[in-house]
Design a protein that fits this description.
Elements lengths: L1 H4 L1 H4 L13 H12 L32 H12 L17 H4 L4 H9 L1 H4 L7 H11 L7 H7 L2
Length: 152
C-alpha cells in the first residue's frame, strides 16, 4: 500500500503524499483535513477504503493493523529515502513508527524495494500470516520465510 501511495512522489509528479493524485493516502488525508483531525476513526475515512485498527464498520472488524497516523508517518518516512532508480523523494527524517512497529529501517527499505520479488502472497509477522492462511484455508504461504527474516 505504501509503495503504491508513493508512486507519484517517486515519479516527481508530486512533492508530498497530500498532493499525490489518485492515491489512497491523499483520499485519507483529505477526509481527515475536512474534519480537522487525523485519528483513524472510520467516520473520517473514505468508505471505499479499508479502515485502520481503531475503527470498525457496521460492527465488522475488518481493519488494517495499525493507526492511520502511523501509516501516514510510515509513508512519509519511506518517501524520504533516496532510491537510485527513482528521481523523486521526500526530505529525510526518521519517525518513531518503525520503532513502534518493531521494524528495522534497513529491512523496511528492502521490503519496499523488493516487494514483488520477495512476497508472493501474504505479508506480515509470522503469527499473523499463519492465522491468515488458516482463515483462507491455505496450508502455507510462500512468503512465510521472507516474513520471518524481515518482520519476525
Amino acid at each position: 500500500m505504501a509503495y503504491v501511495d508513493l508512486n507519484p512522489i517517486r515519479a516527481k509528479i508530486a512533492e508530498t503524499p497530500a498532493v499525490s493524485d489518485h492515491t489512497s493516502v491523499k483520499l485519507r488525508i483529505e477526509a481527515c483535513q475536512s474534519q480537522g483531525r487525523i485519528d483513524g476513526i472510520s467516520e473520517n475515512q473514505p468508505k471505499q477504503l479499508q479502515p485502520f485498527a481503531e475503527s470498525t464498520r457496521d460492527g465488522k472488524i475488518e481493519e488494517l493493523p495499525f493507526r492511520l497516523q502511523d501509516y501516514l508517518e510510515l509513508v512519509d518516512w519511506t518517501g524520504r529515502q533516496m532510491r537510485e532508480d527513482k528521481p523523486g523523494q521526500i526530505e529525510e527524517t526518521v519517525p518513531p513508527i518503525l520503532n513502534r512497529l518493531n521494524l528495522d529501517a534497513d529491512h523496511w527499505l528492502y521490503m519496499t524495494r523488493h516487494y514483488q520479488s520477495s512476497f508472493k502472497s501474504l505479508v506480515g509477522c509470522v503469527q499473523q500470516v499463519r492465522e491468515a492462511c488458516r482463515l483462507l484455508g491455505w496450508k502455507k504461504s510462500h512468503s512465510l520465510s521472507m516474513c520471518r527474516a524481515l518482520i519476525g
